[in-house]
C-alpha cells in the first residue's frame, strides 16, 4: 500500500481556499469562501490582452479553425500542507510525488462520484496539471501524465485508511484510481489568483477559461480540461507574474 491517501473527494473542500485535492488529499466538504475571496480581486494587468494575443497566435497556427470541445487533459488537486484525517496525515505535495519510486504514484482516495467518473475517463499518456490546494497560495506547480488507466482503489477496503468505505464490495468496487507520473515542474508557479483574472476576462469577452471547472465546480478534486484550456494555462508559464 502506498502512502496515506492523498486525493479525496467527498463533496469537496474549497481550496482554503478551494476544495479538494487529489483531494488530494483535501477535504471536499469545506467552504470555498476563503478561496473565492482570495481570488476575487484579479491582479492588475492581466486579461483581455493575454487572451487576444494567445488566440491570435493559435489562429495563425491552425488557420483560424475552432477546436472541438472535448476533454483530453486534467487538473488534479492535492494538499501540500499537513492535515490529519482520522489520525492520518493526508498531505501530498509535488515533492512527495517526485520522491516516489519512478516518480510515480496511484491517485487514490477520491470519494466523489463525478470525480471518480473523470478518473475512469482518463486515458494512458494524457497530461494533467498538478495543483496545490487548500494551502496558503493555491495554484499549479507541475505537469504529470497518466501511466495506468482506472482500476479499483485499494483504500476503499482498508479499514485503517481514512477513505475506507464499508459499503463498497470487492466484487463490485465503488471507487477507482489511476497511476500518475511526474513529467516536469511548470516554469513558474501559476497561482489561482492569476488564472482567476483570465477566467473573469474570458467570461466577459469570450475565451477558453470562461467555463473552466476550477471556478464553476470548485469543489471537485479531479477536473477535466479542453485542449484549449490546457494550452492557454500552460502559456502563462512563459509570462512574467
TrEMBL record:
- InterPro entries attached to this UniProt entry: 5hmC_binding, EVE_domain, PUA-like_sf, THYN1-like_EVE
* Signal is among the record's keywords: no
Predominant subcellular localization, coarse grouping: nucleus
Biased region (Low complexity) positions are 41-52
- Keyword Nucleus belongs to the record: yes
Record field: transmembrane = none
Which SUPFAM superfamilies would you find in this protein's record? PUA domain-like
A single GO cellular-component term from the record reads:
nucleus
Q: Which domain of life is it from?
A: Eukaryota
**Bias-annotated ranges (Basic and acidic residues):** 10-40
- EVE domain ranges (all copies): 73-235
Q: Which UniProt keywords apply?
A: Nucleus, Phosphoprotein
Region described as Disordered? 1-62
Name where it's found: Nucleus
Function noted in UniProt? Specifically binds 5-hydroxymethylcytosine (5hmC), suggesting that it acts as a specific reader of 5hmC.
* Protein's name according to its UniProt entry: Thymocyte nuclear protein 1
Question: What taxonomic classification does the UniProt entry list for its organism?
Answer: Eukaryota, Metazoa, Chordata, Craniata, Vertebrata
